[in-house]
Write a structure and sequence with these properties.
This protein is an alpha+beta fold and 330 residues long. Helix content is 34%, strand content 25%. It contains 13 helices and 18 strands. A hairpin with a 7-residue loop joins β10 and β11. The longest helix has 16 residues. The N terminus and C terminus are likely disordered.
Amino acid sequence: MDESKKNETTGGQLELVLESLLPPIRRENSRYPALFTRVPLFTPVKDRSKDNSFDPAKPAIYEADGFKITRIGEGLSVYDEDTLIAILQLAAEKSIKGNPSAINQRLLPVPDAEPSLKPATVEGWTVEEVWIGNASPYMINTFLDRGTGGGQLKQCLESIKRLSRTVLVLSSDHVKRDRNMIFFELVNDHSEHGKAFVKINATMVHLLRDYAVIDVRIRKELTDVGKSLHRFLCGSAQEFVYSLEELQKHLGYKGSAADFKRALIGRKSTDSKPGLPNQLEILKEKGWLLDYRISGTGRSSPIVLWGKKAQPTLFLDQSGQNTTKVLAAE
């Protein structure tokens, strides 16, 4: 083959974009990156002004699975995590694979694509995978059983924008350079009622190779602390043991140890204070936990939670291309 024909062929390969529908999972379930189950990116706090981790001038730093994760941007609450979980379910409609420039041409007016962790190659050309789909504040709030009034849709829209502006920097001693990533891109302008075209970028798709399945039906029944616990346990082994001190750190709970214990196991109502539901008992009643037990006094011995989930909720990539191996291979 002469050189001109060869260049024409490889140029065609460069522009090739493959589009396919993503296999659905049960509507009430949502895939969630396993790495994110292990760090408190989303704080269980109602009043954002009372948590200094919400200061955009102070990047928050977390560690998990050999990675240091630096979050740059506004602080994120469990409300924002609910929004992200809904977007990862609703907007993961199609997979697009191809060269980054070809994908961008296909999805104009998307900005330049971020570099993937370690993209595959086909005959020397870089190939990335992104996911695309539609979501709107109305769709998200309906999915989450949140209200759909004007103020509630505006609150959801603010959450979507806050998530899209957040930058995460992944670093490790085992990789050559830090990786910047975002949760997703908003391809077009939108309002509270209009649909947004969402692009889940290549780095996020890589992270989702190792994922936890979060049952949204159960999550809806829980408080913010209960949701944080449920998310963390979704990324844990089927049988687990944690001290309450460890759990408080993993969940990013800012109150006292006594308040955290009450937030988990609840309290009876009194004339002066309303009751709090036992979050562990809810998980057991829903069939998500087979059993749990709390031991220790907190004085002579640490308070420890033991539990066993009804079924596995953590699924690791079996191709050898999970996040840690992909990064370390560079």
